[in-house]
Amino acid sequence: MSFNYNLLNLLREVYYWPGANAKIKYYYTFDGEKLRKTVENNGIVTKVDYCGPFVYETASGVRSLKYIVTPDGRAVKNGSSWDYEYNLTDHLGNVRAVIRKGSNGLAELIQQKHYYPFGMEMSQLNLGTGTNKYLYNSKEIQNDFDLYWYDYGARFYDPQLGRWHSVDPMAEKYYSISPYAYVANNPLRFIDPDGRKIVDANGNIIYTHSGGWSKNAPADAVRLGKAMMGTRTGASQFNKMAGASYPIELKISSANLGGKLGNSFIRRSVSLDKNGQVVDVKIKSVKVEIYEGSIKNILENNIRGADAESQDLINAYRMSTNTIDQAIGAVAGHEAVHTTDSQNQRESAENDYEGTIHDIEKEPRKVERQILRESFDQNLKEIEPIMPF
């Protein structure tokens, strides 16, 4: 068996043993969307065309609409009528059961699937004769000639190995993880929507450089991320959080905690040598919480800082921001340093375990003030000059 890939590193052809006259071909748009699959078996060619949600099959020269993919399952052509199938999925989007309306008007189970953690089916537990191929993570299984790979869009995944068969096109975002590893080897928590990013079931990792937000991204995360991307420095900090190898949860709270505008709750493991000195710090997960109530308080009320430095920062917020979200972007940039900067994390651990007095707020404050300066410059540009009469 041999495999050929196109310039986008997408699977183009699968050739089986010599003389078998068996092969699979895939056709894509210029940006990698799959349009067609052809399967040749001893001179007999079957074509499957993907036209958005509409899937056509050409067999023996006759082309027909086979089914329509819907948000809840499929509408399957049955003669001149349609059968409506509904998928029951688990928290990771794995299709566990497919039901439809039976002849007695009640729900009829036509397919039931069980999976090992990395996606192989527990065939001895499966039930039903349904033809639905959208199974693990709701991705389409490629089972022609028993290939048994899942098509995720950017790559094909092999659940028998628990590995991808091509390099992660966004490997620079996950430099600490093998480019062939599936969801950081943690399939019980994470999914990969398209073969290019790792997202947990709640959408906590929700942004990629290729453009967008996952459909299950929390509103707080989207708002906070867009606020950060309003400035150059904020966008840089947000990209560091999006590229972290550990989960980062983003929250906006209505709480008013006085002068405390945000906080980072960091779960970590710290390795010490025999003398109690910090050797290594590993971050397990992070929760960033921004206190919108506190931000509104300093912007809208005559609040005084606890000291000269605090008052200076409050003044900077009042002068530099026109909206609450601009201020949220600056606070989030501050917290991003705590959550992604390895030196800051090590110094924090040394303070806790060695009794050092590193100023772990120095760099976060620097980033925060830089975001405020960039917001100030942007707001100045928005003011139109007054033209003389």
Radius of gyration: 27 Å
* Fraction in beta strands: 25-35%
Instruction: Choose one word for the global shape.
Output: elongated
Summarize the helix and strand pattern as letters: EEEEEEEEEEEEEEEEEEHHEEEHHHHH
Helix content: 10-25%
Return the average pLDDT rounded to an integer: 87
Number of helices: 7
Q: Report the strand count.
A: 21
Give the N-terminus to C-terminus distance in angstroms. Answer: 79 Å
Strand order of the largest sheet: 1-2-3-4-5-6-7-8-9-10-11-12
**Unreliable stretches, pLDDT < 50, 5 or more residues?**
none
Indicate how many domains the architecture comprises: 2
Main beta sheet strand tally, sense and closure: 12 strands, antiparallel
User: Helix/strand/pairing class, anyone?
Assistant: alpha+beta
